[in-house]
Amino acid sequence: MKVMIIGCGRVGSVLANRLDEEGHQVVVLDRNQQAFRRLSEKFSGKRIVGNGLVEEFVRPTLQEKTDILLAMTDKDNVNLMITQRVKQNFQLERVIAVVHDSILAGLYKELGVETVCPTDLVIKDLLQTIKES
Amino acid sequence: MYIIIVGAGKVGYHLGSLLMAEGHEVMLIEEDRSKVELLSLEFHDAIMQGNGSTVEVLKEAGANRADVIVATTGNDEDNLVICQISKLMFLRPRTIARVNNPRNEELFTGLGVDASVSATKIINAVIEEQVKAGDMMIPLLTLKEGNVEIVEVELSRSSHIVKKKIKDLSMPPGSIFIAVIRGEELIIPFGDTEFQPEDKVLALVKRESEQALRNML
């Protein structure tokens, strides 16, 4: 599978490492060169320094067949704009935005944007843990 | 009208002041506390602190009774989300977004923003119009994000089309004459209409055909 990850933060970098280890083709994009230090030394995927909101930085990757794009910068609105633009301009199997604001995540699902909400997931997990104790 | 403006930068601030002076009810939303403090001397209850791209803050600002919601922040991604959640969550606001990068305008229109305003594009259009005015082809109205224009041309004696009938002209594709003003008279042109010097001709023209139309005239 070919996966593009926009935002090489704490979650993005670990996800990139894991997918790479599992043998997937991974492309990571981040505005900040320093962010790539989070990637493991063994990481064999591609690193691109650039702004995910600017088409020139994503086009070269996406115009070749890509299965999944994950927008996971630390800004919800950036992730939502990236995914909506990519959906409009490219044919991808799945385009996913990470959205921390739970209400926003729900709203954009209604608009047909696939969202993952870390806040919801943590709450769900914590509730589960509390109930089990 | 009740108008909510998100972002109290230069654009939001001046827009808010103007609208208030015209007697509209305005609410400015700004995230920066020090800015809010400073501006509250002038705006009193018409400014509030908060992140305007969240449903909670917009609701608190009274978005449900707003006629217009204007997103004027310096970040296009914030302006897009503000307009999209306003459309989805609230009753009947028209949404207007400031577009900082003119290349985002098309995206915004496709995603449910009612109107977008790009300062760069406006200034560019004004400059273009100034340049064209020398050619006597005056743009009256631009439609479809500037891709279609209604233009007015006053025919001089030396114009190529004077004393000719419309049916004998080869019009550039993507252009059509819609009216001829001769003195006080308005003529809706058809094939047999013959042009005379000093006729004012109105034409609808696609941007890409504009130069061809100008050459013909």
Q: What letter string, H or E per element, gives the SSE order of chain A?
A: EHEEHEHEHEH
Q: What structural class should be given to the helix and strand makeup of chain A? A: alpha/beta
For the record, the count of structural domains of chain B works out to 2
Q: In whole angstroms, how far apart are the ends of chain B?
A: 46 Å
Overall domain count of chain A:
1
Described by strand count, sense and barrel closure, the largest sheet of chain B is: 6 strands, parallel
Rg on CA atoms of chain A, Å: 15 Å
Oligomer: heterodimer
Give me the number of helical elements of chain B.
7
**Helix segment count of chain A?**
5
Average pLDDT metric of chain B? 88
Tell me briefly what this model is.
Chain A is an alpha/beta fold and 133 residues long. Chain A has helices at residues 10-21, 55-62, 76-89, 102-110, 118-132, and strands spanning 2-6, 25-30, 46-49, 68-71, 94-98, 114-116.
Would you kindly provide a written description of the structure presented here, covering whatever features stand out?
The complex is a heterodimer of chains A (133) and B (217). With 133 residues, chain A is α/β, with parallel strands linked by helices. Chain A has helices spanning 10-21, 55-62, 76-89, 102-110, 118-132, and strands at 2-6, 25-30, 46-49, 68-71, 94-98, 114-116. Chain A has 5 helices and 6 strands, in the order E-H-E-E-H-E-H-E-H-E-H. The mean pLDDT of chain A is 95. With 217 residues, chain B is of the alpha/beta class. Chain B has 2 domains: 2-119, NAD(P)-binding Rossmann-like Domain (Rossmann fold, 3-Layer(aba) Sandwich), CATH 3.40.50; 130-216, 2-Layer Sandwich (Alpha-Beta Plaits). Chain B has helices at residues 10-21, 33-43, 55-60, 76-89, 105-110, 119-133, 210-216, and strands at residues 2-6, 25-30, 47-49, 68-71, 94-98, 115-117, 137-143, 148-154, 175-182, 185-187, 200-206. A 6-stranded parallel β-sheet of chain B has the order 3-2-1-4-5-6, sandwiched between helices. In chain B, strand 9 (175-182) and strand 10 (185-187) form a beta hairpin. Chain B is elongated and about 70 Å long. The model of chain B has no long low-confidence stretch (mean pLDDT 88).
